[in-house]
TrEMBL record:
This is Ubiquitin carboxyl-terminal hydrolase. The keyword Protease applies. Pfam families: Peptidase_C12, UCH_C. It comes from Ophiobolus disseminans. The record marks D180 as: Important for enzyme activity. The keyword Amino-acid biosynthesis does not apply. It comes from the Eukaryota. Its EC number is 3.4.19.12.
Length: 303
């Protein structure tokens, strides 16, 4: 049996390098900060969006979705895997989006073979196959943040946990679909050509967010787009190209930091600080502790 799936962050750099590691070419993710059609249109060629939201605890599956309609026929004709394992929804949403846009997107040899193998399965078996794919799981886990304290694959969720969920929206066969592995089928939101996608998806997202209290702001939206460096080269935008290359370098650095556990480093650093104070002698260590206590007390009084 395959190992567990760790939690990954909703981060454009994580998602971009994750799909590159899976063999996808000339695609990247961009975080969106507004629900403006113009912001999406400014990104050029868009293949879909990944939406992260707090999953309502205790919500029961209904015969009809709160928005749109279930397309049960599409559950079998599209690549729609049911989600069968915890923590896999981020990568599952990405894979579902990309495999349904094959032909426009170069998904690479490994994902192409995976789609050919699992494509004719029913949604539940597709989900099991995805969850048990060593390649996809290991690639997913390689972008999980290192933690020495919690093993997300074994910790049971509690009622106090905030559970977040990823889903994908994309235009397939000139229809706007919501791909959510926790639902019984893709949700159809009407006609939508790839060109119309920016103007059609924004109202759908606005209606979804409106179902939450006004105080709930924990949403994240990322667009799956054609590599912005390609467009910059095509139009001779040297400043734009440099900006994108700098962004890639920053993402690479941030991803490398996610893989490291810094507890040992911090422990050694603190040992060195304490040793330095002890070496000073003459009560320097005791004075240092008292000064720290005084600063803490002063800070508490301010608050």
């Amino acid at each position: 049996m395959s190992g567990g799936w760790n939690t990954i962050e909703s981060d454009a750099g994580v998602f971009t390098y994750l799909i590159e590691k899976l063999g996808v070419k000339d695609i990247q993710f961009e975080e969106l900060t507004t629900l403006e059609v113009s912001e999406l249109q400014a990104l050029g060629t868009i293949y879909g969006v990944i939406f992260l939201f707090k999953y309502p605890s205790g919500e029961k599956r209904s015969d009809t979705p709160k928005d749109g309609t279930y397309d049960h026929e599409a559950a079998n004709t599209l690549f729609f895997p049911a989600q069968t394992i915890q923590n896999a929804c981020g990568t599952q949403a990405i894979v579902s989006l990309l495999l349904n846009r094959e032909g426009e997107v170069e998904i690479g040899k490994e994902l192409k073979e995976f789609k050919e193998f699992a494509g004719d399965f029913p949604p539940e078996l597709r989900g099991e196959t995805l969850s048990n794919s060593d390649l996809i799981r290991e690639t997913h886990n390689s972008f999980a943040r290192s933690s020495p304290f919690i093993d997300e694959t074994t910790r049971a969720a509690t009622e106090d946990d905030d559970v977040f969920h990823f889903i994908a929206y994309t235009s397939i066969n000139n229809k706007l679909y919501e791909l959510d592995g926790l639902q019984p089928a893709p949700i159809l939101h009407g006609d939508c050509t790839p060109t119309d996608f920016p103007s059609k998806i924004i109202p759908v997202l606005q209606r979804r967010i409106a179902r939450y209290p006004e105080t709930e702001i924990r949403f994240n939206l990322m667009a799956c787009v054609r590599d912005l460096r390609i467009r910059a080269r095509e139009i001779g935008d040297e400043d734009g190209l440099e900006l994108q290359e700098d962004k890639r370098a920053r993402w690479l650095w941030e991803n490398s930091l996610r893989r490291h556990n810094f507890v040992g480093f911090i422990s050694e650093l603190l040992k060195g600080v304490v040793k330095a104070k002890l070496d000073e002698g003459n009560g320097a260590y005791d004075k240092w502790i008292e000064e720290a206590k005084a600063r803490t007390k002063k800070q508490r009084e301010k608050t």
